[in-house]
Amino acid sequence: MTRRQRLETLFAQAAGYIDQQTAGVVPAIQPSTTFVRDENYDLLRDNNIYARDDNDIVRLAEKILATAENARDALVFPTGMAAIAALFRTTRAGQTIIMQSQIYWGTTKWVREYCERRAIKLIEQDTSKTDETVSLIAAEKPALVFIETPSNPWLRVTDIGAVAAATTDAGGILGVDSTAAGPAISNPLDLGAHIVMHSGTKSINGHSDVLAGVLAVDDETRPVWQDIKVDRHDAGAVIGSFEAYLLIRGMRTLPLRMERMSENAMAVAQYLQAHDEVDHVFYPGLESHEAHALAKKQMHNGFGPLLSFTVKGDKQRALDAVGKLHLFKRATSLGGVESLVEHRFTIESTTGIPETLLRLSVGIEHIEDLIADLETALS
Ligand SMILES: *Cc1c(COP(=O)(O)O)cnc(C)c1O
Q1: Ligand 1 pocket by C-beta < 6 Å: which residues?
Q2: What is the CATH number of the domain that holds 40?
Q3: Within this chain, do residues 243 and 342 fall inside the same structural domain, yes or no?
Q4: Annotation marks residue 17 as catalytic
């Protein structure tokens, strides 16, 4: 699908949706799992047989997301991890996967176990090091390269265009977890990636009330895409009607929310960077970020809600600061309208996360209230 409208218009109008039965501007939630045939055993509605594969409201969510990503096709899954699993399950014993190191811990953990069970060679590489990564891809000829940019919680930025070109040359598929940016800020397929992935649980829904995952593809005739479609249908990782409804409802304001979150996150990053009690701020919007220039090229209308920083002192100092926050809720996840804070070391102590690192997901609250909250916590 080629995007003709700007993203604000596409999302606000749910890709021009009008309910055919009621003329409503909001899609109906159809809970039926099965669909009737007529007396000649013809389907009353073409393509509607059984809800594991056939669900109009899920198709609408997929159409909006495919259009937003300039994709040829998109599939919605019940969680982000289900989408990631469907992509990785296209690889076979004896093949090689290159995955970015130090990304979303749930991905790393699942992929490590999967590759071990399936006798797939897994190489974890810091893909923000472009030259090293390009050489590695040329040498290893991986079936799949998987990156996350910006990465969570380090906010590393990978050069999507360079890694995509190297992967294409090597005959592989590049998958990009674009959750931290989202479709209103970055469109990896436009830069040459083959498949873009999102946890729809995060900013796409944006209200912390539904789990969802997304895969979208640059060319629906790729064998890997056919495998993913068959996997979703046969293995049954489908989202329910009500969840798809919530996803669409949330998406209508996605560009607006991302704009405010990015503005707030930028202001918070600048405030933290100037603070005496703060050691280092990781945010691609800051000029001091190691890949700021690249981030500016790959991201538009802001740099997203996610940022990390280290406080001066020790683990207790970081936990004390977190304990004093009121507006930033102590909870995992990101991309919702409410601001969240996480002490990542408490969650994943074995992956090299500094004890003093705090990860923020900055919401859409008033910036002065957020900064006042941080001021109280850090002073
Ligand atoms: C949350 C998240 C996932 C997993 O998504 P779920 O919807 O929780 O399954 C994957 N990647 C990133 C970057 C995430 O933040």
Answers
A1: 79-81, 104, 106-107, 148, 152, 177, 179-180, 199, 201-202, 211, 213, 334
A2: 3.40.640.10
A3: no
A4: no
Known catalytic residue at 317: no
Please state whether the predicted TM-score (pTM) of the whole model is above 0.90.
yes
Domain match, 77 and 214 both: yes
Residue-wise pLDDT tens digits, 190-213:
999 999 999 999 999 999 999 999
First to last CA, the chain: 51
Q: Say if residue 1's pLDDT is above 50.
A: no
Q: Last residue of some domain: 216, 251, 286?
A: 251
Cα(276) to centroid(ligand 1), Å: 33
- Residue 329 known to be catalytic: no
177 carries an active-site annotation:
yes
Ligand 1 center to 281 CA (angstroms): 22
Q: 217 and 261 share a domain?
A: no
pLDDT, one tens digit per residue, over 165-187 is 999 999 999 999 999 999 999 99
Residues 16 and 103 in one domain: yes
The parent domain of residue 116 ranges over: 7-251
Number of domains making up the chain: 2
Among 200, 216, 251, where does a domain finish? 251
pLDDT digits (tens, 9 = 90+) for 101-152: 999 999 999 999 999 999 999 999 999 999 999 999 999 999 999 999 999 9
Under a CB-based contact definition with an 8 Å cutoff, are residues 177 and 103 in contact?
yes
Query: Which atom of ligand 1 is found nearest the CA of 152?
Result: 13
d(CA 182, CA 349): 28
Residues 261 and 240 in one domain: no
| Mean predicted lDDT score pLDDT of the chain | 96
